Structure formats: structure tokens, C-alpha cells
Amino acid sequence: MVEVKFKEEELELVKKAIVNSIRERVKKFNFKGAVINLSGGVDSSLVLKLVSLAIGNKKTYALILPEEGITPKEDVEDALKLCKELKVNYEIIPINKPLSAFKETLKDIKGDIDWGLTNLKPRVRMIYAYFYANAKKLLVVGTSNKTELLLGYGTKYGDLGADIYPIGDLYKTQVWQLAEYISIPTDIVKKTPSAGLWKGQTDEEELGFTYYQIDRVLYCLVDLELSVRETSELLNISENAVMDLYERIVKNEHKRRPPTITKISRMCLDKDWRYPVERF
How many CB atoms lie within 10 A of CB 124? Predict the structure, then answer.
């Protein structure tokens, strides 16, 4: 039986490891605090609380950036309630105006405009986070988890744009588990996962599998380093389904790496030079 969940006794250690890594990163680079784009979903809520535990509520900033007419009201309400409960700094800024300005400017461009505009939303939110970070000397904390990073389920230079990914080594199943452990409100933990890109969108419907199914497959392929066939046999899942997820991992590798540099010199920066070396 393959289970991705942590053992009960491991949860406190995982929490401490993440909290310490956030605290060390803020301290090492002399940031005055950290900022998180808070959607009201479980990933960003978990990250907000971990950051607050690491550096204190007065140094923690949350940006709630809804798209009015698309973002569910309960997401904004849940995000606001959590900010008040944790007593962190927060602002609510609807992104409709900048989106409208982009749409007006880009309306004559030919191509898949709708897909471009869909990805524009997380990119606008990223701009707000970095503007806020520059203005207040803050670290931008990302909210992507291991499942999303492996599948490329995120927007390059959008929600994937951040200085650190504190929950980037946790599968979605483990995110839910840790969120429950540190007492994130049940309404948030049990909420149907959604990137909020359009009305009624859900992650699992878009991905074509449940997170429980996805995480077990990814764990076998990545952590246990099994082949597609071995994973299929171990989990009793069709080889085609496992292959579909494996191909997504490969296809989206570019989202997990900085842009490739064409090698000309002996010391190409993305292939040969590794400095400074960081251990945390």
C-alpha cells in the first residue's frame, strides 16, 4: 500500500523545518518581512500561517487580489478572516482595472488571446507582490506545492514567480495534512481546490484525476524512482494514466528551471558555475 501522508509524529518536525527555513531566508538577506498572495485556498493559507510563525505577525503581509465577478466571495471572506485571526498586515486590491487595461492594449494582437489573458491574471498578481516587496523590502513567498511544481500546474512568472517555495516539497495530500495540524480553519482545508482562473474552475477537473490519485503516482515516479510500468502495477492504475502524468512532468520541466543559456564559454552560468552554494 502506497501512502503519501506523513506519520503523525513527523508533522511537528516538518513544520519546524519549514518555519526555520523561512526565518533563515528573511534574516540572511536582511528583509524586513515577507509578503504572500493570499487566495483563501489551503496552500496560501498554510504558507501565511507558517510565515507568521517564522517571523511574527507584524512582519507578515498578505495581499488579497480578487478578480471581481470571478473570484468567489467566500474566498475573499476566508482570506480576510484568516488575516484577522493571525493579526497580520493585509490589503484587498481587486485586479479588474489592470486586467482591463491590458485587454484594451492587447485587443488587436492575433493568436490565442483568451489563453494569454487567463495567464495574465496570476502575472498581474505577481507584479503586485513584487511591487509591494520592493516598496517595503520584503521577501516574496510562493505558495506552490510539489504536485503543482511537478505537473507544471502554475503560470511561469505568475504564481510560480517567488523568492522561495516553503511548501514546494510537500505533495497536495501532505499540504492538507499539515494545514489541519497547524489549525488552518476547516472551511479552507476542505474547500475544493481551484486556481480561480475562470468561474467554476476546479483543479481536479482540469487535471483529469483526483489529487489522491495524482500524488500516489508522482510519489512512485519521483520519490521511489519507479518506472511507468512498475508504478502502474504497484498502484493497479492503467499504464496510460501513469504515462499521462509522467509526460506532464517531462513536458513542464522548463517551469522548474531558469531559462537555458546557450553555452559559449568554458564557464556557462547555468551549466558549469555553481556559486554561491546554499544548503538550506
Answer: 19
